[in-house]
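User: As part of a screening pipeline, I want to sanity-check one entry by hand. Below is the sequence and the SMILES for S-adenosylmethionine. Please return the complex as structure tokens so I can compare it with the automated output.
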Amino acid sequence: MNARQMWATGLAGYLLDLSRFAKGGPLNLHSLTKYRVINALARRGGGTCLIEIGTFLGITAARCTRAFDTVLTVDLDAQLAALAAKGLAKFRNVTAYQGDAVTLLPQMLAHPGAGKAVVFLDAHYCGGNTARGELPEPALDELDILARHRDRIVGIVIDDFRCVGVEEGFPTNAQLLAAAEAHSPIPPLRSGHCAIRS
Ligand SMILES: C[S@@+](CC[C@H](N)C(=O)[O-])C[C@H]1O[C@@H](n2cnc3c(N)ncnc32)[C@H](O)[C@@H]1O
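Assistant: Here is the complex for your manual check:
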């Protein structure tokens, strides 16, 4: 998908999200809407780095190259990571990692460009050729690692929240919210500094 197609598809999804939101319907946000949530958190908290856990094809990473000085993204699947890295190579501010998110997150946080960061937790098996790690949804372990850097994490977006407590091996809603609340400098859902979206 070229840049123009990516933005056109993104706009269509965004308009659909707005229309569903206006009708009060259930929302599974499209990628441009997710980008806008991530970008809004960064602007609110002065974030200069996006750390994306789960690259897939690199669409969110590519979008975020405009809004962030540094974009760091990781995917467990070797083929997907290679494909995404190829597509992202034209952006000088992106580093694409391949490997398990929980193993590589400390290294990503130690990257010289990882100053104040927004973190997008989106690593789990989602069908097709995507990877299934040791933990189907490693968000609790990721939140544990992020807690050690809480002074510079300006926002955490947890994607696909509808699968939490539903999909096998995922944490429960209560576990995830408790972990986010325990580790976030400002409690999630109350302050808006930590957004949780489906
Ligand atoms: C929902 S997709 C990511 C979509 C992407 N964030 C975007 O916005 O376009 C989830 C990705 O997480 C990857 N994944 C699954 N388990 C992982 C793990 N433990 N570590 C890193 N990546 C993982 C899968 O291979 C898959 O590509």
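Points to compare against the pipeline: Residues 187-198 have pLDDT under 50 and may be disordered. The pocket of S-adenosylmethionine is lined by residues 31, 52, 54, 56, 59-60, 74-77, 80, 100-101, 122-126, 130-131, 133, 138 (CB under 6 Å).
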